[in-house]
Amino acid sequence: QQQQPQPVTVEDCADKGYSVVTVRCRDRPKLLFDTVCTLTDMEYVVFHATVFAEGPEAHQEYYIRHMDGCPVSSEGERQRLVHCLEAAIRRRNSEGIRLELCCEDRVGLLSDVTRIFRENGLSVARAEVATRGSKAVNTFYVTDASGGAVQSQTIEAVRAAIGQSILRVKDEVYPKASPTAPAPESGRLSSLGSLVRSRSEKFLYNLGLIKSCS
């Protein structure tokens, strides 16, 4: 049986004095942002990076050193770096908002509920359906159509359509809408999530903490 490749590897590039970090995993929104922030939080400087995506897979390669100019120097440090980057990859891979529906069971109830979800742009990542006597007790884990977090006003619209007393939010982790929030400044790390726009285009990018290796 073919062994699955590791999502994160760290190798030495002795002739250049860098450590080479390679990330291969399923692409998702803000993956680039999360991996670069992890590297900078750990006080590594990225001197060169190549990022591209093919189909659903993302490929990221970083040439890094410590802020003092030294590459990764021990196996313990290498394992810590791998562990932190793997945690960053998993960071936003949640099942979504958990909604619990409790009401009198009836024919067509599940169909009606999922139709309202679809009409409001929600996708059901997982569902647990049960009955207790005459009651339907259903749990839905929902995301937006792209698998991301759901805005609070969308959840409230769904609850209004289904019934606020019977559909309850159990995990209130959705982001609050902020239409008046200022746009991020050009070149800031917060804009990195929008860098990978083409699934087949390979490109180099430069930002404040990435230095030219020329």
Structural description of this entry:
By secondary structure, the chain is of the alpha+beta class. The protein has two domains: 8-93 and 186-204, ACT domain (Alpha-Beta Plaits); 97-169, Alpha-Beta Plaits. It contains four helices and nine strands. Strands 1-2-4-3-9 form a five-stranded antiparallel sheet, with helices on one face. A four-stranded antiparallel sheet has the order 6-7-5-8, with helices on one face. Helix 1 (31-41) packs antiparallel against helix 2 (75-90). The longest helix is centred in the middle third of the chain and has 16 residues, at 75-90. The protein is elongated, with a radius of gyration of 22 Å. Binds amino acids. GO terms for molecular function: amino acid binding; nucleotidyltransferase activity. It comes from Anthurium amnicola.
What is the topology?
Blueprint: E1 8-13, E2 18-26, H1 31-41, E3 44-54, E4 57-66, H2 75-90, E5 97-104, H3 109-119, E6 122-132, E7 135-144, H4 152-162, E8 167-169, E9 203-204
Antiparallel strand pairs: 1-2, 2-4, 3-4, 3-9, 5-7, 5-8, 6-7
Helix pairs in contact: 1-2
GO molecular function, one term: nucleotidyltransferase activity
Keywords: Nucleotidyltransferase, Repeat, Transferase
Protein name: ACT domain-containing protein ACR
H and E string: EEHEEHEHEEHEE
User: Which structural category do the helix and sheet elements fall into?
Assistant: alpha+beta
How would the global form be characterised?
A: elongated
Based on CA atoms alone, the radius of gyration comes out at 22 Å
Q: Gap between N and C termini, in Å?
A: 43 Å
